[in-house]
């Protein structure tokens, strides 16, 4: 299993991401008049960012990015923090502000996401050197709280509305469920990232933990992106659902 992860982890992860993004592009016309179109943009954004994060595979003495060996950007912790741990949170805050109807819920999410962004930037500035070789548990936990607020508010609205009868037909339900479960699984791992730390010139890795971490991330990613793909294919636009239910 460990050998399999070493050889195929990135391939499998990128594959499920690309499939979800391509599915969104293929079915874009179905959702072009809905908020779901922004989610499709987001999937494409993630695919591009993940592709760019792979630059580390070429940061070796015999590769074409050899000039980055020993520099602060030799590893991609900084990039992952920016595009995923901060960028993804801000997107979902924006997205749920689009789909939620309750003004109080939207205001709470705006306040929470704005506070999260400001705190994240300040924390990075005060920990500038560590920003390039480690992940910050504070940012991960605060980001997870924003995600939980977004999804819980969505579930509350669903329970209080007529959508409860057809919730399983809507893309937003599967998006909410998938990201809620993903962050619930992944967030506790950030407290053990000390075993996954990289310092320039000194790779401090607990390989047993790394393999366990990869397994958890792999299955969580497969679950999340497969759910997105399923939802985009089999769900109907919410406008169409509302028309059919009248």
Give the helix/strand class: mainly alpha
Radius of gyration: 19 Å
Into which percentage range does the β-strand content fall? under 5%
Low-confidence spans: 242-246
Number of helices: 9
What spatial form do the alpha-carbon principal axes imply? globular
Tell me how many strands there are: 2
The residue-averaged pLDDT reads 88
Can you summarize the main beta sheet? 2 strands, antiparallel
Helix content: 55-70%
- Give the H and E element order: HHHHHHHEEHH
Spatial order of the strands forming the largest sheet? 1-2
Give the N-terminus to C-terminus distance in angstroms. 52 Å
List keywords for this structure.
mainly alpha; two-stranded antiparallel ribbon; 2 strands; 246 residues; 69% helix; single chain
How would you describe what is shown here?
α1 packs antiparallel against α3, α4 (77-99) packs parallel to α6 (137-159) and α7 (171-186) runs antiparallel to α8. It is built from nine helices and two strands, in the order αααααααββαα. β1 and β2 form a beta hairpin. The chain has 246 residues and is an all-alpha fold. The longest helix is centred in the last third of the chain and has 28 residues, at 207-234. 69% of the residues lie in helices and 2% in strands. Strands 1-2 form a two-stranded antiparallel sheet. The chain is globular and about 60 Å long.
């Amino acid at each position: 299993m460990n050998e399999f992860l070493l050889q195929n982890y990135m391939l499998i992860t990128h594959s499920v991401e690309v499939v979800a993004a391509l599915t969104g592009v293929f079915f874009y016309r179905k959702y072009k008049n809905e908020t779901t179109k922004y989610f499709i943009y987001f999937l494409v954004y993630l695919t591009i960012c993940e592709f760019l994060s792979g630059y580390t595979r070429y940061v070796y003495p015999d590769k074409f990015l050899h000039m980055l060996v020993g520099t602060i950007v030799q590893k991609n912790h900084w990039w992952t923090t920016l595009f995923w741990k901060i960028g993804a949170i801000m997107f979902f805050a924006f997205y749920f502000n689009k789909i939620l109807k309750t003004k109080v819920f939207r205001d709470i999410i705006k306040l929470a996401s704005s506070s999260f962004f400001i705190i994240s930037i300040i924390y990075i500035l005060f920990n500038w050197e560590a920003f390039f070789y480690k992940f910050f548990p504070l940012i991960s936990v605060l980001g997870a709280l924003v995600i939980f607020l977004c999804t819980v508010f969505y579930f509350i609205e669903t329970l209080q509305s007529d959508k409860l009868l057809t919730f399983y037909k809507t893309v937003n339900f599967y998006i909410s469920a998938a990201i809620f479960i993903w962050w619930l699984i992944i967030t506790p791992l950030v407290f053990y990232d000390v075993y996954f730390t990289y310092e320039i010139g000194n790779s401090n890795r607990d390989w047993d933990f790394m393999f366990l971490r990869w397994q958890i991330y792999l299955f969580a990613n497969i679950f999340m992106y497969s759910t997105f793909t399923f939802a985009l294919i089999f769900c109907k636009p919410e406008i169409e659902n509302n028309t059919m239910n009248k």
